[in-house]
Amino acid sequence: MISSSIASATSYNNRMFIFEVVGLRQSPATDNFNYAIRQSGRIWFQVPYQRMNQEMQRIQRLGGRIVSMRPLSEPAPVPPPVAKTENKVRQTSSTPAKATKTKESVSRSKPMTQTKGKTDIPVNLYRPTAPFVGRCMSNEPLVQSGGIGIVQHLKFDLRGGNLHYLEGQSIGIIPPGADANGKPHKLRLYSIASTRHGDDLDDQTVSLCVRELEYEHPETKEKVYGVCSSYLCHLEPGAEVKITGPVGKEMLLPDDPDAKIIMMATGTGIAPFRAYLWRMFKPGEKALNPDYEFKGLAWLIFGIPTSPNILYQEELEALQAEFPDHFRLTYAISREQKNTEGGRMYIQHRVAEHADELWAMLQEPKTHAYMCGLRGMEDGIDAALSVAAAKQGAEWAPYQKNLKKQGRWHVETY
Ligand code: FAD
Asked: 260-413, what's its fold?
C-alpha cells in the first residue's frame, strides 16, 4: 500500500487542478492570470500540481481567496441531495434547557452538511445550569495488563432527554462535590467516542474514552488524581451523571464518502476517531446511514506509550484487516519502538517517516487532516510536514493556514 501511495504521489506531479478563487479584481497585477475575471470577482483557472503552493501564495498576495480546488479529472461538485431521514427520532419525556434544533427537525429540514457556519449542528442542548442527568451503563478498562495508567470506555444512557450529537463533538461532565473554594465543580469536556447512533445503535447512548489524570504534587510530592477523570474512571454502572453539551464544530467529519481522512491521535485523542471509524466501517452503522457509504481512505496514526496502551486495539485491527484498501493503521509506540535516531518513537517521528506521502495527500482537495490528544503534539507534526513541503519549494505555515481556512485542517488538543 505504501509503494502504491508513493507511485500515486509521483503521478501527481503531472496533474492539473482547478482553483476557484474569489475576491480578485481585474488589474495590471492580475492580468497575467490570462483568464477574464467576472464582475463578481470569481475566477476558475488551471494550476499544475507543482505550482500549487506558489499560486496559492500569489492569490493571497493579490487579495484573492481560494474557495475550492479539485483535480481537473474530477467533475465540478454538484449540490448534495436532500438527506434521507438518517437520524432516528428519540422519544423525549423531558425538555432540554435549550435546543437549537431537534433531531427530527434536523432530519426533516436541510441535509446535515456538518460544516462550520451551518446551523444544523446540535450545540449546548444542555447547559451547566440545567444539565441532562444520564446514567452510567458500563465502564470498561481499555488498558491491557502491563500498560500504563487507567483509561476507561464509559457508556451513558441518554433516555428521557434530547441529547444528540455528531461524530467529533464533545460533551461536558460535571463532577459531584465542590472545589477548594466551596463552589460546585466546573464541567470538564470529553470528546465523544461513539457515533451519533451510539454504541448500541439505538440513538440512546453516548460513550467516552477517559484517562485518569494522575500526577505528583509539585511541592508535597504526593500523588494527585484529577477530580473529574478519577470520578469517571471509577464510576459504577447505574450511577447518575450530569452531562452538558454537546459542543464543538472543529472536529466534524465531512459528509463526502470519498474523502481522505488523516487522523493523528495520542492517547485518549483516539476518541473522535473511534467515532469516525465506526461510522465509516461498522456494519450496523452502514445500515443506519444509507447516504454515507465510505469509499475513501482513512489513515490513523496513533501514538501510545506501550502496546497494552493501544486503546480499542482489537477492534481497530479487525477493521484494518477487513478494509485494507480504505483503512490504514500506523502505530507510534514510544517506549517500544525506536525512531531513526535511536530515540523513542513519538507520533511526530511516524509523521516524519510518512511526511512526503502525507504532504502529497494534503494537496488533494478531498483530504482532511485531524489531530487530537496531548497538547504539544502539533509542533513536531508541523516540523515534519515543513520538511516535506520544503522539498517541493513550499512553505508549510501559510499552506497550513490555507488548509485551516478551507476547513481541512482540524485540531483539538488538551
Ligand atoms: P483536574 O482535577 O481538573 O486537574 C487538572 C489540574 O491538574 C490542572 O489544573 C493542572 O494544573 C494540574 N496538573 C495536571 N497535570 C499536572 C502535573 N503533571 N503536574 C502538576 N499539575 C498538574 N480527557 C480525556 O481523558 N478524554 C477525552 O476524550 C478528553 N477530551 C477532551 C476534549 C476537549 C475539547 C478538552 C478541552 C479536554 C478533553 N479532555 C479529555 C481533558 C479533560 O477535559 C480534563 O481536563 C481531564 O480529564 C482532567 O480533568 P480532571 O478534573 O480529572 O483534572
From this structure: Rossmann fold (3.40.50)
